[in-house]
Amino acid sequence: MAHNEDLFKKIISHAKEYGYVFPSSEIYDGLSAVYDYGQYGVELKNNIKQYWWSAMVQMNENVVGLDSAIFMHPTIWKASGHVDAFNDPLIDNKDSKKRYRADVLIEDHIEKFNDKIEKEAEKAAKRFGDQFDRELFLSTNPKILEYRKKGEEIKEKFVLALENNDLEAVRQIIIDNEIVCPISGTRNWTEVRQFNLMFDTKLGSVTDDASTIYLRPETAQGIFVNYLNVQKTGRMKIPFGIAQIGKAFRNEIVARQFIFRMREFEQMEMQFFVKPGEELTWFEFWKNRRMQWHLALGLGNQKYRFYKHDKLAHYANAAFDIQYEFPFGFKEVEGIHSRTDYDLSQHQQFSGKKLQYFDPELNQNYVPFVVETSIGVDRTFLMILCNSFVEEKITKEDGSVDERVVLKLPPALAPIKATVLPLVKKDGLPEKAHEIMDALKFDFNCQYDEKDSIGKRYRRQDAIGTPYCITIDHETLENNTVTIRERDTMEQIRVDISKLAEIIGQKVDMKHLLKRL
Length: 517
Ligand code: ATP
Hints:
Helix content: 25-40%
Strand order of the largest sheet: 3-9-10-16-13-12-11
Number of strands: 23
Bound molecules: adenosine-5'-triphosphate
CATH topology of the domain at 87-195: Herpes Virus-1
Shape: globular
Structural class: alpha+beta
CATH architecture of the domain at 87-195: 2-Layer Sandwich
Low-confidence stretches: none
Distance between the termini: 29 Å
Number of helices: 18
């Protein structure tokens, strides 16, 4: 799909206009790559976290939770490798003065060959119609083979350069492939340099080097250093997992895609501890489980793909990303990594404390291997927001055409489940509406709205993504019935007030998502 910048801009302004996401410190002109979640944003975010937490902790007997502190002993980041190697290669364009991640420039360039292949295939599909054999075409068409070869050649060189930590070679790939700055359009590049992404600060009042601590760039290390605490106190038997949701901080070089890449963000991570040698089986298990979690949301299976890492971190023996098709292309939302025994072994070495498991079946101690699933709350939020944003044309009864913007959020994640609307602000209708809301609010997050015409109020709820609108009119006072309007179909039915909780529950209960896992 062509990248859709206009659509993305609309989504960003919709998010702001309807109280989902605000730029941080806006009255001071904002803070780059930091955002605040508004009154609806916080609800959607909480629901996403709830869905993940239930799916991981509540649904799995052998997964438990944790909430470790953001500040940790600085040696942890030495042991994990972050102090020495949590770097991104950066490059500047001398004309535009814009800074880029060299690896991203190259990856985007490689992705262009994939786009070209897709375009050729689409053209051919149109030409050949029903007789088109896509697989055959992709594996034999000379143009396609040429594009693929080019992409693979660059990828090979790139992987080698990264493996050798050869920044000059990374730069040479940019030069050789005539990659230009998207702003200035020139190839006037600086050298490639490494840049560490961790924020540091000082602990306490003594400001010497020893007091330097870091804002965690991932939540995972808090899990590793608590491995033994949880295993012992929870009497956990391998295999078992520890899940955690929390803030992480990275001083990202380029942060231009709204909440896709932030400097302060939130992660939902799970480390699953297994017997050495069984890690790849569990890796497959969690890879599929996590994809299932995404697909259950109903955003569309074709919107997802797995992406296999070609360049593995030195400690990993398998890594896949789950990518989603954002308006700006397929991008990573989640990573599933087989991290071997690297982290626990490192912490064992740096702390001098044993981090082992006594396996009663083998009658033997070992350092467990780890399979990790790591997903960003904010990227998931953006994925759902992009997927839900729909501009619709509606033909009215009199034949005229109206438009509406509707957020078709998965109902279980919608911030407000039902809004109660008195048709008019008099005749006892507001009182009746409040009575209904007071009964429903124990089960659902509800809203009350009496301002503006009913049509405007429906549009407003559509824009917020509320699955149900309940309208109270004069008939309600006579026979205790209301109309309930469904967001996506706009269908209205008249029901007894006593049926409301059941109707709403059938649609918005998180249970329905969890049962699809
Ligand atoms: P990228 O290559 O996009 O920088 P990454 O591979 O460094 O991501 P991981 O370290 O695997 O990301 O982090 C796991 C998850 O955390 C990512 O899949 C993403 O959802 C989220 N994440 C990472 N960095 C950011 C960020 N700067 N802003 C928002 N979410 C992030």
